[in-house]
């Protein structure tokens, strides 16, 4: 059984956005096709970027790669370690801290967030689902990817086909079937009323 997670909005939004949600139950037998993987990564590549600096860097790790298991075991925390191994792929989103001339790129996280959101929307358009993972051991991921100190790990995105919620247990199951909620628009508006 899959819970209904379609967003209830004050005004219509694109179906690909309304239907997007972050499952933890992934089909352990599904592998992304090369077309799906490239399509998702290209969407991130073509995200808006301040001064076109493109500070984002992606590590695409298929479930068939030994690094997938190592990231799940050493790079994730808490119950993320129990469900993430079933994801078809993990996409590590990192940024370059400094530009080529040695100056800090203060817009790097914003730009990488835009790239990550574009990948999520593209995955949803392909009939896939994603889940951003914040419970990370960033130093372990840096080490596993052999990255130097000019890189900063921001998130890991699990990607795959959704599976029945009943395949999860405990807190992961409870979160999977919980209603999808957001603050009301009035609660997040700093100024102005449409």
Sequence stretches where pLDDT stays below 50 over 5 or more residues: none
Main pleated sheet = 4 strands, antiparallel
The structural domain count equals 1
Instruction: Give helix and strand order, one letter per element, not per position.
Output: HHEHHEHEHEHH
- The order of strands across the largest sheet is 1-2-4-3
Overall average residue pLDDT? 95
Secondary-structure-based class equals alpha+beta
Topology-level CATH name? NADH Oxidase
Q: Which radius of gyration do the C-alpha atoms yield?
A: 17 Å
Helix share, percent: 25-40%
The CATH architecture comes to: 3-Layer(aba) Sandwich
CATH top level class name:
Alpha Beta
- Number of helices, counting only DSSP H or I runs of 4 residues or more: 8
Describe, in plain words, how this protein is organized in 3D.
This protein has helices at 15-18, 34-45, 66-75, 80-83, 108-125, 138-144, 170-177, 185-188, and strands spanning 56-62, 89-96, 129-133, 151-160. The chain is α+β, with helices and mostly antiparallel strands and 194 residues long. The chain has one domain: 3-Layer(aba) Sandwich (NADH Oxidase). A four-stranded antiparallel sheet has the order 1-2-4-3, sandwiched between helices.
